[in-house]
Amino acid sequence: MIPVIRTDFKKISKLNFMIVIIIPAVVMLMGWGIFQGGMMNKIGRSWETFLMQVNTVITFLIPMGITIIGCSLANTEHKAKAWKLMLSLPVTKRSIYLSKFFYLISFIFLICLLLSAGIGIVGTALNFSHDIPVLLVLKQIFYPFLASIPIMAFQLWLSLSIKNQAFPMVIGIFTAVFSYTFTLFSSAIGNFLFWAYPALASPLKPLIENGKFNGVGYSSSAWLYPILGVVVGILFICIGLKHFIRKDVY
To answer: If you average pLDDT over each of 38-42, 133-137, 177-181, which comes out highest?
Structure first.
């Protein structure tokens, strides 16, 4: 599998590296703008409020990043019509599939690392009342990361299975919007739809009283969704891998 990973690295589009930089930059700029603009003064300027606002943006942008990177990784072979040539080499379909997933999850992990660093820098610059809550920051970033594994597996499966990348892109955009909307209109449906897992994985939640925002509270069930993400993600990886291995025409 290592030779396949090395080969795939040479074919990675520059767009993927741009996405790794753009998403954290957009999130931090939006977070900075919200607080510097005074929009959060009425509900308090704190790490918890900042992290909750950041998570709202992440819930939308991370699935978008997964969609774009997943389509880009698959489109390398689709566009060049290189699947038959690649599969004629002494490599297994399993190695090819897992190599693509390795790069997808690695790029999203890099995004999360940059987000963690960016949150610390921006939060410090905004002069919040106490030191960086490192554990809370890591939970706020990497709980949704783990909860996003089913989305990664599903989008990669679509991208590798369908030659026209417009279809996986539309599905990815639609589900990203759905995930974002779910943060605003939460219901029990999220327990069954893995696209909502990243939103539910946030350790922070808004406190609403009489229809008005009244601060930030802590979720008692956030830890469950990273676990569900890993379990459901492995299931989709196995399904996608099995389908890829059996598929004859590319």
So the answer is: 133-137
**What whole-number distance in Å separates Cα of residue 165 and Cα of residue 18?**
19
Going by pLDDT thresholds of 50, 70 and 90, the confidence category of residue 117 is very high
Q: Containing domain of residue 58, as a range?
A: 2-246
* Contact in structure between 172 and 189 (CB atoms under 8 Å): no
Residue linked to tokens 């279809």: 167
Q: Which two tokens stand for residue 43?
A: 């509900």
| Burial class of residue 41 (count of CB atoms within 10 Å of its CB; 0-12, 13-18, 19+) | exposed
The closest of 152, 179, 155, 180 to 167, measured between CA atoms, is 155
pTM: 0.90
H or E element at residue 115: helix 93-125
Residue 226 tokens read as: 């990273």
Alpha carbon distance 181, 96 (integer Å) = 35
Where do runs of H (alpha helix) occur along the chain?
A: 2-11, 14-36, 47-80, 83-87, 93-125, 134-147, 149-161, 166-184, 197-200, 224-246
Any idea which residue has 């942008």 for tokens?
61
- Torsion angle in degrees (nearest 10) through CA of 227, 232, 233, 238: 140
Number of domains composing the chain: 1
Measured CA to CA, the distance from residue 123 to residue 45 in angstroms comes to 10
- Cα separation, 165 vs 161, in Å, equals 10
User: What DSSP designation does 190 have?
Assistant: G
- 146 neighbors 201 (Cβ within 8 angstroms): yes
Which two three-digit tokens encode residue 24?
A: 């954290």
Q: Is the pLDDT reported for residue 233 higher than 70?
A: yes
Say how far residue 150 (Cα) sits from the centre of its chain.
10
